[in-house]
Amino acid sequence: MRSGPRPASPPLRRRLALGATAAACALAAATFVAPAAQGAATPVEIDLVTVNDFHGRIEQVAPAGGIAALAQAVNQVRAGNPNTVFAAAGDMIGASTFTSFIQNDVPTIETLNEAGLEVSAAGNHEFDKGWADLEGRVQDLADWEYIAANVYEKSTGLPGLAESWVKEMEGIKVGFIGAVTEELPSLVSPAGIQDIEVRDIVQSVNAVADTLTDGVATDTNLEADVLVLLIHEGAPGTSLAASTDPGTAFGEIVNNVTPKVNAIVSGHTHLAYNHEVPYAGDTGMRPVISSGQYGEKFSDMRITVDPDTKQVLSMDNTVIDMYWDHDANPATATVPRYAVPAGDPIATLVASAVAAAEGPGSVKLGDITADFNRAKQASGAENRGGESTLGNFVADAQLWSARRTDPQTQIAFMNPGGLRADMAFAPDGVLTYKEAATVQSFANTLVTLSMTGEQIRQALEQQWQPSGATRPYLKLGISAGFEYVYDPAAAPGSRITRMTLDGVDIDPTASYRVVANSFLASGGDNFAAIGQGTNKRDTGQVDLESMVAYMAEIGTATPDLAQRSIGATLPAPGAQGYEEGSTFDVALSSLDFSTTEPRVMAVDVAIAGVAAGSGAVSPSLPSTHADGSGTATVTVTVPEGATGSAPAGTSVPVPLTVTTATGTSLDITIPVFARAESATVGFANKIIAKANAKVKFTAIVLAEGGVPVVGDVTILDGDEVIATATLAASDRGVVKVQLPPLGKGLHRLSAAYGGSESVAPSDSPAVPVLIW
What we know:
The protein has 4 domains: about 40-350, Purple Acid Phosphatase, chain A, domain 2; about 360-470 and about 495-555, 5'-Nucleotidase, C-terminal domain (5'-nucleotidase,  domain 2), CATH 3.90.780.10; about 565-675, Immunoglobulin-like, CATH 2.60.40; about 680-770, Immunoglobulin-like. Helices cover about 20% and strands about 30% of the residues. The chain is built from 16 helices and 42 strands. Strands 4-3-2-1-13-14 form a 6-stranded mixed β-sheet, with helices on one face. A 6-stranded mixed β-sheet has the order 6-7-9-10-12-11. Strand 6 (about 165-170) and strand 7 (about 170-180) form a beta hairpin. Helix 4 (about 105-115) packs antiparallel against helix 10 (about 345-360). The longest helix has 22 residues, at about 10-30. The N and C termini lie far apart (about 125 Å).
């Protein structure tokens, strides 16, 4: 498509883009002339093939089809209809996998050239290495046109990129308008884009649409019959409501872009959706689409146009998976839809890129002192439900990296599915580029977002996956300083019993700044609560790049052998809690890692800082994706004095602390109380009485501190219960009981107070009564 090298000045660059388009139009006219007998009445059918957020996924790794297979898909569409355009909605490069990332994305650009990509919106990741890199190196290498109507050079006030691109097919001119998210300044290094400004999308797009339809055609102002917006901005969710919500940046665009624009092809949020939105244009319904991410899918929009009136008659879009079973079950997507023939030139380019990456892949990033492992099941298979040294380490690295651009970040979450291999010490403790890239092969970017304490709790609850999920439990890696305790036996939604950040309880209503990779930040793996975070900011840092920078910072990494979360099931407390001196069992889990880490043999429990019990830890591993490696049941006794100087009968929150020799130390707050001591005395109204005489017995119960006495009082004759009574608070500890007839002889009468939740039981001394 390009007719010569790209000059530096924006006006000439725009003229060149339009000139290249004119050349394409001439070629199309020369190649696709219809026989005159067909006449002008036959509608012209155009196929618009689109992708977005490709991010250098040139290799075929399910569910990503890889560039060679994607090119086969596009070629099949072209074979069925020569009136085909291959376009994109941005982020074709940047945040790439190791093979492309380590080679400055040259392999991605070269293979997309071979695949015949014709035009793309500029995405935020096209600016990762700065504006100068995009307008110079990238555009010089790329055979396609990058367009953005809302990017302007500060020095000239002129558009920095071509605003639009037009292709003519059978007399129908299809115009493409580009735009990049207005959040670009917060997504890339400010120094890299200091020479440009990002303007309002709706205003910029509408102005270009007016120009393309004003009826005045010049060398620098082509006209278009069909307008398509390629925009690197997207819906926050896949529903139609999410795409049209006026409270979102994307909804504002969808609702306010001129009806001269017939279709909106979007990206940025990595979600796949295929909607039709009412508008005042030709068809009455405007496609609003996105093809997801990474070349896992592509879209084929069939556009039908009346060649006489130039009216758009229909626009029907289909989103197609690169793997046959991806939609039905993404976890088992293993059958490619498009075969790549032997000797395919694009496949050859990919193989060469992979080979070229081997050298850089051997570069040392730093040293590790031991294995960083994923969790394992009893069979040795990966256990995505177990806490792992690797998951926590990656979370630590991402928290450090996120703070470079968002210093207020406090907590990092890492999804276990994003860890594709262990980080092994063998053979020499050296961590290379390739090893780090193998661990994190998805090249997700780091996204910071705000979550309330309650949303964080919900996210942890969502580790227990929905019914029918392939993996019933997915354990998030968490950064140092954040800890939580859960009860695996509790009802869904109430399992998380405590969360702390640097030892301080998480406030459900407070806002916390969190970082997660872009997959998790969008709610991936059913972590909807993370996806609902607000004030999202893409840091522009790829997860692999963040690991590279982190290792450069620390030099040597050592696994943290302390568990950052544990399971604990306690018996239900009484109304006031657990009483001092009482004994109960605590079932503990997730006390141990599951691979080459030192084994945890024992666990200790303290209450209010006083040793309360200890137990042996079982090393048994789960047989599925589940937490619980390292379990124990510990019998504990609540120490006397645990409530300190609190008044008797008062419930006091005290820590139950679980510790192991490998550094685990987590607190569970439990309510503890001490009952007030009581004293009981009793006496009969008669010491000597005739047989059948009426004898009354008075019991007086007093509690320390003036705590009200309530509960049952039992009157005994020796060991035999002969009467009972109930003390109410209004009785003030005094109860009088009419005794049943007593037989002749000496009786030893006493009172036993049974106690209450706040007062301990007590017995009175026996008093003699003689019946004659």
